[in-house]
Design goal:
The chain is built from 3 helices and no strands. With 89 residues, it is mainly alpha-helical. The protein is elongated, with a radius of gyration of 15 Å.
Length: 89
């Protein structure tokens, strides 16, 4: 593994790891009251695009980090949408 690939893997681990506590708390409590729908919409769309880009250029750190983050932000996004729907009912 090249030094730049190591940097990429560390960056991927740090940025994805930093997101895990928020995802865990949201999944556990099902509370999204203080989370912005616009922010999570943008985060989810952005990480999906980074994932596609990483797949296209065959970049493992991009694929791993954005695959995991897209999954977590997608879960939070779905919980947020469900909570908005439940508020209307």
């Amino acid at each position: 593994m090249t030094p730049i690939a190591v940097i990429g893997m560390i960056a991927a681990a740090l940025t994805t790891g930093a997101y895990i506590p928020q995802a865990w708390k949201t999944i556990k409590t099902r509370s999204t009251k203080d989370l912005s729908l616009i922010t999570f919409s943008m985060l989810f769309a952005g990480t999906i695009m980074w994932l596609i880009y990483g797949l296209y250029i065959n970049d493992t750190p991009l694929v791993l980090a954005n695959g995991i983050t897209a999954s977590l932000s997608g879960i939070i996004f779905c919980i947020k949408i469900a909570s908005i729907k439940n508020e209307k009912d």
